[in-house]
Design a protein that fits this description.
alpha/beta; 9 helices; 309 residues
Length: 309
């Protein structure tokens, strides 16, 4: 099976200098994919920029304008962690646009899968703030777009980045139509993601956090992930699955302390696909989040893509 790879070299123009989230991340992934056995099964699809209406389904208009104006003025930081350049707003529109394009790709036919090889990442971007290397919340934008454009009723967002996706959680905190599930290191940046954070109002019970101590074994991590997926399936059979695919939860990543191996990402992907095949016609969108060890990142992404196939 082919997987749509959503990518544009414009992503390299988000100039962050020596920041951990830099253009070389995508370059090393592309180099590994070029010489791998998955290359012939990747359908290269260029993204279209997200429309403002796509962004404001998840973010306040003043937040979008804040990001645009800071980039236009040539500011270097949105906050102490989040580096930007003049090109970053347009690049972020294209990253969010990859999420939209990926949804279009998987909704064309049953069983379609897509992966957005994008930067900047997105899962820390809240309703009103860009933060944690993230400008706009790509996964959230994908979910809302699928609901608006295709009438998708139930979207499951699965986040296996080492950091908790506080932005995604906040955006859907009171919404029972989007289930947010995260495994992450805890306590750790950004300080959210405790097990008692389960949503509120109509959304209560539609957020599930599995906080893990640094150094948790890959076996324990994987079992917790699999058990959670099975419990979610009973409560919330999804019509579409979006993966916030952060590979900084791999053993040896510089910004994390979890112990997953490439084989674990492969098996977790297969766990997700089993649910997708049963409930969402096999449709899965993956979107790159973290992953900062350039010697490891390409192989981790390749393992994920190989499993998607």
């Amino acid at each position: 099976m082919s997987v749509s790879l959503i990518y544009d070299p414009v992503y390299l123009k988000h100039n962050t200098g020596q920041h951990p989230e830099n253009a070389h991340r995508l370059e090393v992934i592309l180099e590994v994919l070029k010489d791998s056995d998955v290359a012939q099964h990747l359908l290269r699809v260029p993204p279209k920029p997200a429309a403002i209406e796509d962004l404001v389904r998840c973010h306040r208009e003043e937040m979008v304008e804040h990001v645009r104006s800071f980039c236009e003025r040539g500011e270097r930081y949105l906050d102490g962690d989040t580096r930007i350049s003049r090109e970053s707003y347009d690049v972020a529109l294209l990253a969010a646009g990859a999420a939209v394009t990926a949804v279009d790709a998987v909704m064309r036919a049953e069983g379609n899968r897509a992966f957005g090889l994008v930067r900047p990442p997105g899962h820390h971007a809240t309703v009103s703030h860009a933060m944690g290397f993230c400008l706009f919340n790509n996964a959230a934008i994908a979910a809302r777009y699928a609901q608006k454009q295709y009438g998708v009723e139930r979207v499951l967002i699965i986040d296996w980045d080492v950091h908790h996706g506080n932005g995604t959680q906040e955006i859907f905190w009171t919404d029972p139509s989007v289930f947010y599930f995260s495994t992450h290191q805890y306590p750790f940046y950004p300080g959210t993601g405790a097990s008692d954070e389960i949503g509120a109002g109509k959304g209560e019970g539609f957020t599930l956090n599995i906080p893990l101590r640094g150094g948790t074994s890959a076996h324990t991590h994987r079992e917790a992930f699999k058990d959670a997926i099975l419990s979610i399936e009973k409560k919330f059979p999804p019509d579409l699955i979006v993966i916030s695919a952060g590979f900084d939860s791999r053993r040896g990543d510089f910004l994390g302390g979890l112990m997953l191996e490439d084989s674990d990402f492969s098996e977790m992907t297969k766990d997700v696909l089993r649910i997708a095949e049963k409930h969402s016609a096999g449709r899965v969108v993956g979107l790159l989040e973290g992953g900062y060890n350039h010697q490891l990142l390409g192989d981790s992404v390749r393992s994920h893509l190989q499993a998607l196939m």
